[in-house]
């Protein structure tokens, strides 16, 4: 597994440029902005979905091509990495390819940590956030930060909130017609390249906050995701404990179960954790019920506390750098790496159009966000 990850990292790194950049697509651009490179041109679902256009899947760590929105987010952070490299190189011309790449990856990793924990998880977990993920106290070498099977299932709670259509909006945030049905968007990389780039999908993600027949079959790929999630919990490999057992693990009371569940399962002990926890009312200010909040929050705390390179740990960044990193936002990253001119300040919350962040780019009171990089007396670069 380590070998495969290292091999993928090498493929994504543009070593030919000797500039610390991530590899980009040489066939298409998004009005001058880079796309991810294509993967191997072999029989694959993206080629099947694109028909005569013959557009393959993007090459990236993890799954970037199954959904246009996933592909757009991967593309956004590819562009941010290369933007950071350019700033680092101009301020530190003596840095080599390796140093530029690693420093940009380090900063980008910190950005993703901040956005995930400060902006996303705080809204997902609501009133339970500070209890489940208290203030960081540094690296805990005894913490087991491996991903648990139950978390891998619980975090799929977001599957229930995905709408049946994939929205894409024009520059005035008006729907582009016709709507794209979610079931026909699977591996549709061609839509990004041929239908306006990543901006329309990112606008929709900002404006919006799977159940039946999630994806129409592409070749022989097609799933009912709700059924698949429940099957994951009772497979021979995982065989997870039931809903009530996980409520007990989280210190919650043992409910007798709803009538409809009891009619199907017979006993509360047999209720699948995914469907049982999904049916619960949200915690105050959050987007999941108490068991999901517990399982998700516990895992994310373990990930943070068991990470020697967590951005707030001593020696990872200087205090000055941490102060500057704390100012970043996903809104700012979208402003800097797309053609979008209007972005909400609170990007993870349901929004009506103003107030905007991108329109304030020229505000002299805002000023640049600067991080000091200690090396031979210090150097600085703007985020």
UniProtKB/TrEMBL annotation:
One of its GO terms (biological process) is defense response to bacterium. The lineage of its organism: Eukaryota, Metazoa, Chordata, Craniata, Vertebrata. Gene3D superfamilies: Haem peroxidase domain superfamily, animal type. GO terms for molecular function: heme binding; metal ion binding; peroxidase activity. It comes from Serinus canaria (Island canary). GO terms for cellular component: extracellular space. PANTHER family: EOSINOPHIL PEROXIDASE (PTHR11475:SF63), OXIDASE/PEROXIDASE (PTHR11475). Heme b binds at residue 159. InterPro entries: Haem_peroxidase_animal (IPR019791), Haem_peroxidase_sf (IPR010255), Haem_peroxidase_sf_animal (IPR037120). The gene is EPX. This is Eosinophil peroxidase.
